[in-house]
């Protein structure tokens, strides 16, 4: 076995191994050579080389999203680790475990004009769960810091930073370990005792209980709990595409339902108790509603974090949603006098009829394309959706319950969607599809500079020649300033990128072409493929605005 000569690097690697951190994403560099040599020489680790650090971080985050365990990111000194920051922030708010291991210069080389050197200590201070600023000499204190960092990422589900200063020579190796690092016993967080009776009493008295579900992994709730919530006449469950929870009695398309509400409707919908769980919510309309028509109580269920999104939070429930609802329903009785669910279902049914009527007559547009894509999407696909308009269109059309849906909603940025999807595809080994817009795709085009893209990976690229979402936001005017600085108008396509990175490529520009090419696209599993769908810039926003007017 080959090991780096530098003992600090040996300790980092061995402590990672002891904590079962297997997936290592390495961006090439010189200062991190001791780590690269050690990780890549040990068959225990699965190492991936991704040159662009921003892409590497999102790639690692996509893997961690799927394996639900930390991946490690390894980079050289200087600006390299700054390029990790967008993914660090996303992982922080999405509760995805990442371990950043950055190589650094010795402290004596900082701020003296030495090359490739910045102030790396605590560089992620605002968006990190733990920073381990290691000493230049290997020591028990370093071992302690490394252990705590790794265990924090695992237990608290977020990013941590290990900054390791290495002095030259960097490439020397040895054949035997010269350290025996301290391995701390793993300590998980004990569950906090909860007095469920107090919640069950309030639950029984409330006639209107609104359960709003944000971003979630599949199978967060058992079938029994899903049924209990679905058949409680005093409960309305609102889900989004990214909630990954389904039932015919749940309200799946929030914006479709509430956009045309009158003041009387909003008052009728105002809950006595709001119960939330999961990550960030996409719908701006539901957030605006709940901030104006506040519930008497807002309970947020999470083991780690409790955001006061609606300025109404009264109870931080430190529990899993499954355990909480299971306990509640053992202590409560059905509120048969409430018509809350029946009222909401009646409105949802009317909106569905209006939706179907409108969709049957709309012209070729982004909305039409989303409808066609979701109707034909193969079952049991893992679907990754980019931010901006793509994730909002996805909220309006039905998606088969067998499809798992993911999106980087922690910071809701357009950066890194493609890289995340590729990392998720590598880790999950499921049929993987990314639906993205043109600006997000071009912004993260270095994601395709990746030797690990699965053969069955598919990208659906909606190209409307600019940031179409700005056309549906307040303030849109057809001016040179808007077209240049907001929409970012362009005439670029993915054709030459696909050729350069050895991906198959299909281009369509009409509904007829799309219908013709979709079967071939879905059945293509021998090479990664991009389906680029050009849609009319001047039509998309009008179709969407008219959609809501018709609801």
TrEMBL record:
Gene3D superfamilies per record: 3.40.50.970, TPP-binding domain
Annotated catalysed reactions: isochorismate + 2-oxoglutarate + H(+) = 5-enolpyruvoyl-6-hydroxy-2-succinyl-cyclohex-3-ene-1-carboxylate + CO2
Record-annotated Thiamine pyrophosphate enzyme N-terminal TPP-binding domain positions: 7-117
Residue span(s) of domain Thiamine pyrophosphate enzyme TPP-binding: 394-533
Cofactor names: thiamine diphosphate; Mg(2+); Mn(2+)
Domain Menaquinone biosynthesis protein MenD middle as annotated: residue spans: 222-383
InterPro entries listed in its UniProt record: MenaQ_synth_MenD, MenD_middle, THDP-binding, Thiamin_PyroP_enz_TPP-bd_dom, TPP_enzyme_TPP-bd
Enzyme class, UniProt record, top EC level: transferase
Segments crossing the lipid bilayer: none
Free-text comment on the cofactor: Binds 1 thiamine pyrophosphate per subunit.
Gene Ontology biological process terms, A to Z: menaquinone biosynthetic process
Its EC number(s): 2.2.1.9
Pathway: Quinol/quinone metabolism; 1,4-dihydroxy-2-naphthoate biosynthesis; 1,4-dihydroxy-2-naphthoate from chorismate: step 2/7; Quinol/quinone metabolism; menaquinone biosynthesis
Single GO MF descriptor: magnesium ion binding
Pfam families, A to Z: TPP_enzyme_C, TPP_enzyme_M_2, TPP_enzyme_N
CDD domains the record matches: TPP_PYR_MenD, TPP_SHCHC_synthase
Keywords of the record: Magnesium, Manganese, Menaquinone biosynthesis, Metal-binding, Thiamine pyrophosphate, Transferase
Family from the record: Belongs to the TPP enzyme family. MenD subfamily.
Subunit annotation: Homodimer.
Cited function: Catalyzes the thiamine diphosphate-dependent decarboxylation of 2-oxoglutarate and the subsequent addition of the resulting succinic semialdehyde-thiamine pyrophosphate anion to isochorismate to yield 2-succinyl-5-enolpyruvyl-6-hydroxy-3-cyclohexene-1-carboxylate (SEPHCHC).
Name recorded for this polypeptide: 2-succinyl-5-enolpyruvyl-6-hydroxy-3-cyclohexene-1-carboxylate synthase
